Amino acid sequence: MKIGIDIDDTVMSFFPVFTQFCNKKLGKSLSPLDFASDFFKPLGKEKTILFLERYIQEEHSPSQLVFEDFKEIFPQLNKKEFSFITSRVNANEKQREETLKFFKDTFESFKSEIYYTSDKGVKKYEFCVENKFDLMVEDNLGVARDCVNNGIKVILLDKPWNQGVLPEGIYRVKDWNEAMEVIEKIENEN
Ligand SMILES: [Mg+2]
Known about the structure:
The protein is of the alpha/beta class. It is built from 10 helices and 6 strands; from the N terminus they run βαααααβαβααβαββα. A 6-stranded parallel β-sheet has the order 3-2-1-4-5-6, sandwiched between helices. The N and C termini lie close together (8 Å). The site of magnesium ion has 6 residues, from loops.
């Protein structure tokens, strides 16, 4: 079974810390839900990208942002066939190298690929279909719906921004321990 895993807010915190960063710099009181529902809407595209760059330079510390439960289950996950699939915008070569280095340094025997769908100008579900992924682990409800509508099962990590009724084929989980249980259940069904 081929598993795709989103990075931001699935493996490491992003919306809450980025929101806090913007609020501090701009004296605003935005909520992570504002960015999660439409990333460029609260600040506009240009300003968002500018703040994203500043955030990465000044505040971004992946080792502090990665979820503890993901670290715990990683050895189990690493026995499976999985890749990271991110729609991160504006990730330059240096940032990508740092991201890869971070994963290699943090996780023993890390061997996964990291795919950036923005390079290919495709949506995440299109990338998954084209590359025959069976399952996606996500926090974004729109991506989850697109995937399931195209025959890809989804494990959705429960977040304030992805609430609502889920169609069949999307499994809401509270953490990575529960996600691993569902991954194994789906594997056994196939
Ligand atoms: Mg995400």
